[in-house]
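Example for tutorial group B:
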């Protein structure tokens, strides 16, 4: 499967790799200004459109949400979590699987994270306060924001018994804490909402048409146009009232607005003109909305088709063009679902597994929009009702998405982990376990480092492996461990230095071998050569670390004595731990 992964430009600007117009708020106002200035509307009607649109980013509100990753989530007194429990995350592209039995507390982390950023959660209004927390419910989210030297922390605290009684503040390094209500955050979270609670995804293909349409159209970033259209409709209604009071007649069509006879004609004429102007502005805005909706839906629909082609696996149903149709209470998502047999099935004819896969295909493209500042996507319980073939398809889709995004998946179903393992897709696996009094603990099951360590230790402990084979194989396996550890430390250092995320990933991709990766992780202002890396390891860790590095950095065909294989792996684990803790 190939998903286009455009380079990430500055928020609010078009993506150079895609060549498509940005969906960001600033870009929308720019488009409106360009089209409005070139339209045939008179000056007063243009002014009415601008007035109903309000103050956008192009009118003095320059705040743009910076690019960011998740670094940790700490939850207390919320849902199934009592005393504070933390979920550590690697802030960068990659797939993290959070597993555990049902009721262990996985969804409490997912919903707590969503509540912290948005102030709410779909359907969560009751039974959210855990009394075992020992204090007011609180969710703290560490964010790695592009350009900041250290993580920021978003803290949401509840002060009353109702779910809506909360406040949030953002604490960025070197700045005073400030309320989390800056202009830009709310529209960004609406447009690019990075949370996919799969229990609600059925609204896309099979639920209430309006809700399914909203779930797709929210990613188009046209909510301001819809709101402005409603204001213009209200303006037209307000203008009609004085006209009716003065003449007692039905309102005339626009072409008859020049009549000027009879008592009370002047106020009636003014009312008619105001209504005509509001209706003309609204028609123009509706036409622009339809044009931009088609334009912006096209790349999302193309991504949805690509994702569905992998997710559907053995399903005979394909996904054709995706369209949004209607307005107000008649708005809906129109899907073309051709099958192998005669006729085209409807969403109602699909199995639950197919419906979940289709919903995922429609929801995930939002994360791929080039100007999406949220470099992460959180998916809660995506495996439910999936047959084994579609779990394999989901593993493939998530792995491709994780090449460019931080993907965090919560699931109690072991099949996704099994699929990732036998398909050999890299993933960090964290396990959530519940203890007494709503206590929750999170432990690492697998990561690229721990997985490589397990492979190396399995060889080291195998007494049937000849010494010659051991001396050739074990250093290479331990090199894989160190490459993963140095790569993790390098990404963290590059991002904290202020380098843009896309540039950091390019540097890491170019550093394929051990020495270049160590240089990125250990260097400060310039790249380090091999001798400098060894000197730094000796100074900071000890001579043993430099000797281990040299042994692991051998060429694949070389045989290097490792001495005691078990001790060799133990030293590798020690160096990897010290590198990751930098």
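The residue assignment follows.
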């Amino acid at each position: 499967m190939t998903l286009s992964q455009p380079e990430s430009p500055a928020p609010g600007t078009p993506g150079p790799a895609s060549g498509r117009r940005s969906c960001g708020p600033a870009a929308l106002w720019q488009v409106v200004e360009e089209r409005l200035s070139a339209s045939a509307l008179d000056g007063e009607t243009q002014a009415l459109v601008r007035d109903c649109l309000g103050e956008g980013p192009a009118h003095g509100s320059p705040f743009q949400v910076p690019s960011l990753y998740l670094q940790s989530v700490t939850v207390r007194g919320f849902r199934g979590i009592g005393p504070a429990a933390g979920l550590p995350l690697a802030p960068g592209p990659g797939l993290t699987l959070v597993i555990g039995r049902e009721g262990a507390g996985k969804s409490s982390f997912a919903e707590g994270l969503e509540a912290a950023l948005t102030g709410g959660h779909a359907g969560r209004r009751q039974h959210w306060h855990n009394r075992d927390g020992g204090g007011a419910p609180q969710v703290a989210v560490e964010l790695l924001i592009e350009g900041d030297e250290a993580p920021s922390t978003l803290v949401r605290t509840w002060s009353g018994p109702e779910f809506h009684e909360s406040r949030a503040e953002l604490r960025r390094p070197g700045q005073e804490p400030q309320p989390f209500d800056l202009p830009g955050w709310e529209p960004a979270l609406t447009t690019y909402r990075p949370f996919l609670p799969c229990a609600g995804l059925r609204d896309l293909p099979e639920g209430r048409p309006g809700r399914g349409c909203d779930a797709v159209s929210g990613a188009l970033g046209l909510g301001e146009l819809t709101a402005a259209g409603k204001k213009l409709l209200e303006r037209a209604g307000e203008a009609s009232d004085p006209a009716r009071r003065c003449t007692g007649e039905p309102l005339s069509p626009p072409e008859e607005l020049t009549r000027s006879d009879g008592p009370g004609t002047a106020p009636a004429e003014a009312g008619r003109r105001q209504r005509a102007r509001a209706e003309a502005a609204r028609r123009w805005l509706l036409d622009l909305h339809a044009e931009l909706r088609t334009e912006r839906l096209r790349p999302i629909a193309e991504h949805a088709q690509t994702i569905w082609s992998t997710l559907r696996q053995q399903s005979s149903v394909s996904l054709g063009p995706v369209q949004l149709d209607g307005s107000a209470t008649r708005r809906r998502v129109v899907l073309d679902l051709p099958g192998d047999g005669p006729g085209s099935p409807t969403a109602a004819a699909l199995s639950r597994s197919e419906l979940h896969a289709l919903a995922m295909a429609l929801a995930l493209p939002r994360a791929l929009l080039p100007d999406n500042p949220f470099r992460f996507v959180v998916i809660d319980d995506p495996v439910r009702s999936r047959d084994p073939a579609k779990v394999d398809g989901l593993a493939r889709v998530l792995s491709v998405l994780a090449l460019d995004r931080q993907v965090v998946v919560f699931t109690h179903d072991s099949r996704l982990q099994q699929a990732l393992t036998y398909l050999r897709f890299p993933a960090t696996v964290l396990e959530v376990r519940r203890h007494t009094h709503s206590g929750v603990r999170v432990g690492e099951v697998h990561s690229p480092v721990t997985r490589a360590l397990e492979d190396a230790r399995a060889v080291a402990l195998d007494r049937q492996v000849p010494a010659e084979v051991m001396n050739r194989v074990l250093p290479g396996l331990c090199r894989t461990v160190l490459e993963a550890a140095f790569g993790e430390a390098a990404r963290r250092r590059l991002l904290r230095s202020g380098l843009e995320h896309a540039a950091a990933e390019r540097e890491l991709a170019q550093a394929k071998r051990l020495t270049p990766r160590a240089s990125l992780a250990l260097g400060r202002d310039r790249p380090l050569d091999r001798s400098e890396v060894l000197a730094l390891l000796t100074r900071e860790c000890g001579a043993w670390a430099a000797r281990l590095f040299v042994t692991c950095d051998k060429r694949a065909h070389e045989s290097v004595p490792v001495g005691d294989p078990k001790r060799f792996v133990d030293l590798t684990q020690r160096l990897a731990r010290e590198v990751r803790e930098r």
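The longest helix spans residues 265-311. Compare this with the pattern of hydrophobic and polar residues in the output above.
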